[in-house]
Amino acid sequence: MKKHLIRSRVPAAKGFTLVEILMAVVIIGIAIAALVGANGAFTQVNGAAVSLSTAEFLIEEIRELTTMLPVVDPESGIDTFGPESDETTVAAYDDLDDFDNASFCPPVDVSATALTGFGSFTQQVTVENVDPSSLETPVADHTSDFVRITVVIVQNNRPISSASWIRTRY
Ligand SMILES: [Ca+2]
Ligand SMILES: [Ca+2]
């Protein structure tokens, strides 16, 4: 018996043409570029959100640090606007005006301890007496019972968040 040779009926596989390959390369390239671009934008937005929430946290640290302090120094009263001469570190500050023009880098926490992990942030504090009938209007130091504290958070020389609040002398 003779064996019949069965010829394959499957046609020989045709390769892709050069044009098809080039088209595929271009399409995949566009898709990758879009993905990379979207990812970059997402990273930027995410980074900004992290910076903002850190700034809010650093403002709150100053608010809590100063919230229990008297408006004027318990010993010298209104003699000095700013830290008294023996108060050389933030840990020694014992009244609100001690914080005027203070700049903390690294920022400090509620117990006046440096937060070294946040070294790119600075807390800038301003303390002003304001007019009781117009709390937006600053007046001369120690000439009213109302004090406005302003904290600006700066990151890499750029202000990113700020907050002000009023305290009264009682
Ligand atoms: Ca003081
Ligand atoms: Ca003082």
Q: What class, by secondary structure content?
A: alpha+beta
Summarize model confidence as the mean pLDDT. Answer: 91
Which sheet architecture does the biggest sheet show? 5 strands, antiparallel
The shape, in one word, is rod-shaped
Percentage of β-strand residues? 15-25%
The ligands bound in this entry are:
calcium ion
Distance between the termini: 119 Å
Number of helices: 1
Q: Give the C-alpha Rg.
A: 32 Å
Order of helical and strand elements: HEEEEE
pLDDT < 50 stretches: none
Got a strand count? 5
What percent of the residues sit in helical stretches (DSSP H or I)? Answer: 25-40%
Count of domains: 1
Oligomeric state of this protein: single chain
Q: How would you describe this structure to a colleague?
A:
Strand 2 and strand 3 form a beta hairpin. The protein has one domain. The chain is rod-shaped, with a radius of gyration of 32 Å. Helix content is 29%, strand content 23%. The protein is an alpha+beta fold and 170 residues long. Strands 1, 2, 3, 4 and 5 form a five-stranded antiparallel β-sheet that branches. The protein contains one helix and five strands, in the order αβββββ. One calcium ion binds next to loops.
